[in-house]
Amino acid sequence: NNSGKTAQTDSLKQDTSKFLTQPLISNIYTADPSAHVFEGKIYIYPSHDIEAGTPENDNGDHFDMRDYRILSMDSVNGKVTDHGVALDIKDIPWAGRQLWAPDAAYKNGTYYLYFPVKDKNDVFRIGVATSKTPAGPFKAEPQPIKGSFSIDPAVFTDDDGTSYMYFGGIWGGQLQRWKDGKYDANGSKTDSQKEDEPALTAKIAKLSNDMLSFAEPVKDVIILDKEGKPLLTKDHDRRFFEGAWMHKYNGKYYFTYSTGDTHFLASAVSDNPYGPFTYQGTFMEPVQGWTTHHSIIEVKGKWYIFYHDTQLSGKTHLRNVKVTELTHNADGTIGLIKPLKK
Ligand code: FUB
Q1: Candidate of 48, 56, 100 to mutate for ligand 1, largest count of ligand atoms within 8 Å of Cβ
Q2: What is the pLDDT of residues 283-315, one digit of tens each?
Q3: 3-state secondary structure labels for all residues of 30-62
Q4: Which of 159, 225, 322, 340 is the most exposed place for a label (fewest CB within 10 A)?
Q5: Is 32 a catalytic residue?
Q6: Using omega within 30 degrees of 0 as the cis cutoff, is the peptide bond preceding 137 cis?
């Protein structure tokens, strides 16, 4: 989420009847909710939005978050517990600024918190921290994950126990500045500049058995249209922007993501976790706020999407997390969600 632009819908702030759902908590601002069922409860790993006083710009500098707080619920409509600070930026040795959208995973008695933060050279990298309990506190590894870059890690563990990290985000997420494994500080601030060529892609890498490093070189997550052609840079309604998530339903891999400046959540499907994925369509219309960022989980046989908007503040950088049910249609697409009542 990188723009100073304010969505038209911001005028709806505070009018609760206009919203499909209500914020899960209102004592703090939260965004980018990555939800998981751990130890029989729903745990939510969000960004913790604050009024840092950092001026707004197209790089998203106003998203100047400094710690993570983890939430949990016994059930989807149950009471929400705020577990307090799980990781503070001052305890991440290599961090510079901006703790953005995290995710979490569990393996062999350890919980892993994955997080993007700019290093001391102002380049986004992805770090990992560990804990014996899902709500932390988490202890950060001394260095970022080797070979990691950009933002928005989403870790998916397949039925065979293999874990993969999907990641990346363009514009303020810096993905467009990485070519051939090197960062170009003078590169584009937005998309690739080649409008008629394949769009920039999210990235994927299998994780090592100890979940602390990439087990293979980073690969592209290709999204094809129904004719089998890659989505193009100029196709802002459909191309990947940020906020990847993976879920498996009926044996198919659903890669879901935000289209950023066009404000949609979109899905693409494959028989393989690496893709290529075939674009299916938009499954969530724009929220109040610049964009949303989501996760999808199954709880007791029903599917839910966790997402955010700016209902409580009306301000782009002070968001609140929400949840609503998600459905899979008989044709394999995801049912369209309208977060604002018209
Ligand atoms: O919260 C900061 C950034 O905004 C996230 O990393 C993006 O996905 C967007 O939600």
Answers
A1: 100
A2: 999 999 999 999 999 999 999 999 999 999 999
A3: EEEEEEEEECCEEEEEEEEECCCCCCCCCCCCC
A4: 159
A5: yes
A6: yes
